[in-house]
Amino acid sequence: MDTTAPAQHLSLSHLILHASPVVQGILLLLLIASVVSWFVIFQKGMVFSSAHRALKRFEKRFWSGGEMAQIYQNVSNNPQLEMGAGSIFCAGYEEFQRQRKGHAGDALDAARRAMRGAQIREIGQLESNLPLLASISSVAPFVGLLGTVWGIMTTFMNIGMAQQATLAAVAPPVAEALIATLAGLFAAIPATFFYNRFVHRLDELDAHYEVFMDEFTNILHRQLPESKV
């Protein structure tokens, strides 16, 4: 690390280029984490937006009325509807049709289990990569702090060997070390913000799915006398 750089060279690019190899390695690691974080943020943003649109389309079709068999045909043949609540509906309806000749309780329980399994799959797909955002948000500041501690420790070791502690000698290497903390926060703050936002949207979708399952179960229950179960 260069401990004799003049104070006028305290530009960001100069500090990064003249940081110690360990600090530069940590900065590279944090840059990769930041790029991965933003990739996940944009990808999950599109996924959640698509899930919300699919939910609205399905609810509009489902509650518009009509025979349940016709709704099933419309939903199961439409990729824009057969996701999220649409997938849960199809799973429950198919299982109910298979079991309706048996005991009423068995048919409803089987349909409910099928819907629960579809709900878990849908939520699992929405949750994918969210743990990665959580890891970046929690680990990145400590990685940056590690770079800062290492840089400052190396700086004072070099100053001790040079037996000088002028401001011109101390300021540049200390600034180099502090960049690692800045980089850690730069990676962690967006990851933390969007992780919390996505978790909130996930909870909203899960609540909608849960309500639909209850409502659809009641609809199936009303159909049981007609099927003479």
UniProtKB/TrEMBL annotation:
List residues of the MotA/TolQ/ExbB proton channel domain.
91-210
One GO cellular component assignment for this chain's record is: plasma membrane
Q: Which UniProt keywords apply?
A: Cell cycle, Cell division, Cell inner membrane, Cell membrane, Membrane, Transmembrane, Transmembrane helix
Regarding the membrane, this protein is recorded as:
Multi-pass membrane protein
Give its localization. Cell inner membrane; Cell membrane
Lineage: superkingdom:
Bacteria
Enumerate the transmembrane spans: 22-42, 130-153, 173-195
InterPro entries named in the record: ExbB/TolQ_transport, MotA_ExbB_proton_chnl, Tol-Pal_TolQ
Q: Is Cell membrane among the key words of this record? A: yes
The alphabetized list of GO BP terms reads: bacteriocin transport; cell division; protein import
Q: Which family does it belong to?
A: Belongs to the ExbB/TolQ family.
According to the record's subunit comment, the protein's assembly and interactions are: The Tol-Pal system is composed of five core proteins: the inner membrane proteins TolA, TolQ and TolR, the periplasmic protein TolB and the outer membrane protein Pal. They form a network linking the inner and outer membranes and the peptidoglycan layer.
Q: What does this protein do?
A: Part of the Tol-Pal system, which plays a role in outer membrane invagination during cell division and is important for maintaining outer membrane integrity.
For this protein, the record's NCBIfam families field holds: tolQ
Protein name, entry field: Tol-Pal system protein TolQ
User: From which organism does this entry originate?
Assistant: Igneacidithiobacillus copahuensis
From the UniProt record, report the name of the gene that encodes this protein: tolQ
